[in-house]
């Protein structure tokens, strides 16, 4: 069930990010089915609930959940993002309660004291960035009745966002020339992070328009120094450049595009070199699950994670014709 929920979000997200006009009607139907499924498995009350649906009844034992929750905070944020990206906010006539409950759950799940103050989840490095992105998205997604979220809810969200952002920035030293992140704040360093976490932090910083501590130059320098180069292309891996290079080069593309948008001129060249690396493969080799290899991403459900990375890499630069295909 946990993987089914995450995969449903990732696939809905991929369709929202990257869909040709010819496929628009089909993808819209798939999105709506995905959102309906996610709404059906969101927790609606506190306490222990059976997991499963009428389609897949009680296949797992009951587990403790809170109203508005889809499993852990990071997964909840990703599911909520799918609704927001399709235009459903707190006053939406169809999914307003779903969105409201998810926002309230996330606000209540933030760590309020101790070393991990401001973080979300047990995999703080991943989940905190995912929640930051989604909560900020909620504040800029128009309401059905016009306008944006306001009042006490907006104040609570902004306070949570400030603490969440600080979770990633507090350990970054001004004198550093590079920066990376990993499983929690204790890994924050110039070199010891990994791209699987970094990519989510990049999205969080971008949507928050964070530019303090020369952060985007530090992000670029990390990627440049961790990349391998050959001819007109560069690629980057999980921690070393030869580990899951295709998936992590997609993730690296996010960082390069966003750094260029924040004024790091050299990042535009790195972005192009990353795209050139991906463009060495055919579209089938890049996205066909039967062609997947360990060079794409880890086996199994990681394919959907990779597909999201690839879709996002294409969407960020408006790439619709790529690697010999649409």
What does this structure look like?
- There is one protein chain.
- This protein has 326 residues and is mainly alpha-helical.
- The chain has two domains: 1-170, no CATH class; 175-326, no CATH class.
- Helix content is 53%, strand content 5%.
- The protein has twelve helices and four strands, in the order ααββααααααββαααα.
- It has helices at residues 2-17, 24-41, 73-85, 96-109, 124-140, 151-169, 195-207, 215-226, 245-261, 265-278, 283-287, 302-316; strands at 47-51, 60-65, 228-230, 233-235.
- The strands form two sheets. A two-stranded antiparallel sheet has the order 1-2.
- Helix 5 packs parallel to helix 7 (195-207).
Key features?
about 55% helix; two-stranded antiparallel sheet; about 325 residues; globular; mainly alpha
> What's the order of the H and E elements?
HHEEHHHHHHEEHHHH
Number of domains: 2
Strand content: 5-15%
Distance linking N and C termini: 32 Å
Strand arrangement within the widest β-sheet reads: 1-2
Give the helix tally: 12
Mean pLDDT: 88
Query: What characteristic shape results from the CA principal axes?
Result: globular
Q: What's the number of extended β-strand segments?
A: 4
Low-confidence region ranges: 46-62
Radius of gyration: 19 Å
Residue share in helix: 40-55%
């Amino acid at each position: 069930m946990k993987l089914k929920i995450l995969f449903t979000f990732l696939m809905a997200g991929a369709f929202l990010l990257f869909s040709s006009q010819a496929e628009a009607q089909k993808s819209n139907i798939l999105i709506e089915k995905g959102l309906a499924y996610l709404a059906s498995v969101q927790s609606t009350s506190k306490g222990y609930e059976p997991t499963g649906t009428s389609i897949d009844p009680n296949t797992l034992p009951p587990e403790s959940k809170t109203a508005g929750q889809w499993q852990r905070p990071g997964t909840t944020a990703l599911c909520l993002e799918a609704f927001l990206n399709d235009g459903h906010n707190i006053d939406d006539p169809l999914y307003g309660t779903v969105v409201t409950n998810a926002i309230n759950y996330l606000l209540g799940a933030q760590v309020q004291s101790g070393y991990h103050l401001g973080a979300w989840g047990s995999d703080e490095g991943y989940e905190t960035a995912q929640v930051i992105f989604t909560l900020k998205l909620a504040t800029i997604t128009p309401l059905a009745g016009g306008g944006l979220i306001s009042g006490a809810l907006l104040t609570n969200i902004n306070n949570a966002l400030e603490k969440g952002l600080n979770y990633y920035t507090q350990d970054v030293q001004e004198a550093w020339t590079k920066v990376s992140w990993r499983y929690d704040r204790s890994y924050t360093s110039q070199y010891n992070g990994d791209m699987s976490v970094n990519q989510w932090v990049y999205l969080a910083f971008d949507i928050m328009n964070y530019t303090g501590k020369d952060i985007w130059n530090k992000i670029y320098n990390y990627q440049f120094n961790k990349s391998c180069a050959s001819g007109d292309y560069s690629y980057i891996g999980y921690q070393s450049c030869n580990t899951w290079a295709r998936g992590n080069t997609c993730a690296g593309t996010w960082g390069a595009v966003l750094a260029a948008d924040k004024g790091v001129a050299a990042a535009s060249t790195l972005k192009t070199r990353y795209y050139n690396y991906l463009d060495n493969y055919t579209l089938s080799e890049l996205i066909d699950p039967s062609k997947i290899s360990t060079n794409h991403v880890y086996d199994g459900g990681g394919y959907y994670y990779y597909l999201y990375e690839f879709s996002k890499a294409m969407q960020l630069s408006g790439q619709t014709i790529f690697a010999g295909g649409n």
